[in-house]
Amino acid sequence: MVSRFRVGVISSTHGIRGEVKVFPTTDDASRFLALKQVILEAKRETRELEIEHVKFFKQFVILKFKGIDDINDVEKYKGAELWVTRENAVPLQEGEYFIADLIGLPVVTDEGGTLGVLKDVLQTGANDVYEVTMENGKELLLPVIDECVLNVNLEKGEILVHVMDGLLDL
């Protein structure tokens, strides 16, 4: 299982007092309000940073880190990724999974065959869609609905699905 999750990417500085503008890569940007610290991963540096202040501007999160008080101190972090440990990740509800834990899992059918491997999870708004790379190399899109995705078993390391009529014809 993945031990860290990316929650954002620093896109630029914000003001002159060391704040940064972060493009969130998490489902819910408001999660930054509860974060106390992040792991910054830059080109030549990985370090833990304590979050001092959070605010929002359009689609961005504006962060101020403790001990970084000048634009010159954060300029070098443009493009750096912000990560959290699994322990600091948002608690999941039953039936919810971290996408990073699902990528690469084998996808098997209720008829006993192996369909392929989960390549990505597309978030469409109505329901997620699993992008599966089939054994023949083709891509298959499976809607994440009860009639199609029967079980996700992280302990066993597989996703059990029912391929609805017509899905393989596309």
Features:
single chain, 170 residues, Elongation Factor Tu (Ef-tu), domain 3, SH3 type barrels, 2 domains, six-stranded antiparallel β-barrel, six-stranded mixed sheet
Would you kindly provide a written description of the structure presented here, covering whatever features stand out?
5% of the residues lie in helices and 47% in strands. It is elongated and about 60 Å long. The strands form two sheets. Strands 1-2-5-4-3-6 form a six-stranded antiparallel barrel. Strands 10-9-8-7-12-11 form a six-stranded mixed beta sheet, with no helix packed on it. Strand 11 and strand 12 (158-161) form a beta hairpin. The chain is mainly beta and 170 residues long. It is built from two helices and twelve strands; from the N terminus they run E-E-E-E-E-H-E-H-E-E-E-E-E-E. Belongs to the RimM family. Residues 7-87 form the RimM N-terminal domain. Binds ribosomal protein uS19. This is Ribosome maturation factor RimM.
Q: In short, what is this structure?
A:
This protein is mainly β and 170 residues long.
Overall structural class, as computed from helix and strand content, comes to mainly beta
Tally of domains: 2
Unreliable stretches covering 5 or more consecutive residues: none
What's the β-strand tally?
Answer: 12
Write the element-wise H/E pattern from the N-terminal end onward. Answer: EEEEEHEHEEEEEE
| Head-to-tail CA distance between termini | 32 Å
Q: What is the average per-residue confidence, as pLDDT, rounded to a whole number?
A: 90
